[in-house]
Amino acid sequence: MKTLIVHAHPEPKSLNSSLKDLAVTTLTNAGHEVQVSDLYAMRWKAAADAADYGVHASHPLSVAADSGRAFEAGALTADVVAEQEKLLWADTVILQFPLWWYSMPAILKGWVDRVFTYRFAYGVGEHSATKYGERFGEGTLAGTRALLSVTTGGPESHYAPRGINGPIDDLLFPIQHGILYYPGIDVLPPFVAHGSDRMSGEDYQDVAKAWEQRLRTLETTEPIPFRRQNFGDYEIPSLHLKEGLEPAGRTGFGLHVREAR
After folding, report:
1. Nearest CA among 35, 53, 32, 134 for reference residue 94
2. Distance from C-alpha of 158 to C-alpha of 162, rounded to nearest angstrom
3. Dihedral, 65, 71, 73, 78 alpha carbons, nearest 10
4. Backbone dihedral angles phi then psi of residue 201, each to the nearest 5 degrees
5. Rounded to an integer, what distance in angstroms lies between the CA atom of residue 143 and that of residue 187?
């Protein structure tokens, strides 16, 4: 297994950094290859702008079209090209980050904004009366698997179905479905460490043990069964789920997850 860990926390002694280090050690000791993109240590530039596309930047700037032209011309900046090459190398991707303001840290979103360019992560495949591009189950990164390893400040009850923050699966849906599954990545159920602000040493040992177990079973873990776009579940071009496919009473994000078989 070849694993890319994209790490997004500024403190080397943080829980997130400890989980990242544990992942490197566990996977390496199991004989797997590992690369790490430590975004804060790399001083990753988070903002996508005209400088990313050089002579292929238009005026006014069109991020999608310009990034696609630069990608196809081999003219993206070296830092972006390096991350795209890591993604193509990896068969497994781990995003390690704290949940800040109900989402990923800005530096990690900026990694997505700059690395997932047009013609690389999206804007590929056939557009016709029966197919709406290669995405949501197809695409450049099809065959890759990904896992979110996330820490939250609040306890697990705050992220339960009736919790005040909303269900953790709903909070992570835009990342898991909208960022990772969109270019074809199969997404494994997330690993979530709750209560990081008040975690004791004993609590950490339990979290570390659970994280090691998840890492050892990555290759056999079944991905979240998101519905594939071009395989009969959706009307094209409206991309509405066909009537009658939803389980009784299910609404919202859950409509786009098939029932477990």
Report:
1. 35
2. 8
3. 130
4. -60, -40
5. 10
Q: What whole-number distance in Å separates Cα of residue 36 and Cα of residue 96?
A: 10
First to last CA, the chain: 27
CA distance 74 to 228: 30
Residue 260 is predicted with a pLDDT of: 63
**For position 127, what pLDDT does the model report?**
83
Determine which helix (DSSP H) or strand (DSSP E) holds 147, and give its type and residue range: strand 145-151
CB 70 within 8 A of CB 54: yes
| pLDDT given for residue 129 in this prediction | 80
Number of alpha helices (DSSP H) and beta strands (DSSP E) in the chain:
6, 6
The CA distance from 127 to 145, in Å, is 25
Do 134 and 125 touch, CB atoms closer than 8 A?
Answer: yes
CA distance 123 to 117: 9
Which residues of the chain, if any, have pLDDT below 50?
none
Give the Cα separation of 256 and 229 in Å (integer): 10
Retrieve residue 28's tokens. Answer: 């390496």
